[in-house]
Amino acid sequence: MIWLESEVENWRRLISFAIAVFGIVVVFVSLQDIIGNAKFILSFANRLWCKKERTSIDVLP
């Protein structure tokens, strides 16, 4: 009976460790996705800003 309880405890630890690793991976992947979206939005805004500056520079002369 004691052996069975320790075996259950080991499985419980293993499962909780696997869940923790899975959670860390999910957080890391979602952070990468958020950073990728932010980079895309910033590059898009930068392109719009450069177009705006280019047209104003073209209009000046």
Folded structure, characterized:
Keywords: Membrane, Transmembrane, Transmembrane helix. The chain crosses the membrane at residues 14-31. This protein is mainly alpha-helical and 61 residues long. It has a domain at 25-61. The protein has one helix and no strands. It has one helix at residues 2-59. The longest helix is centred in the middle third of the chain and has 58 residues, at 2-59. The mean pLDDT is 81.
Helix content: over 70%
The N- to C-terminal Cα distance equals: 90 Å
Runs in which pLDDT lies below 50 for 5 or more consecutive residues are none
Structural class: mainly alpha
Any idea what the radius of gyration is?
Answer: 26 Å
Number of strands: 0
Number of helices: 1
* Strand-residue proportion: under 5%
Order of helices and strands: H
* Largest sheet report: none
What is the average per-residue confidence, as pLDDT, rounded to a whole number? 81
How does the SSE layout of this entry go?
Blueprint: H1 2-59
Keywords:
rod-shaped; membrane; mainly alpha; 0% strand; 61 residues
Short description:
The protein is an all-alpha fold and 61 residues long.
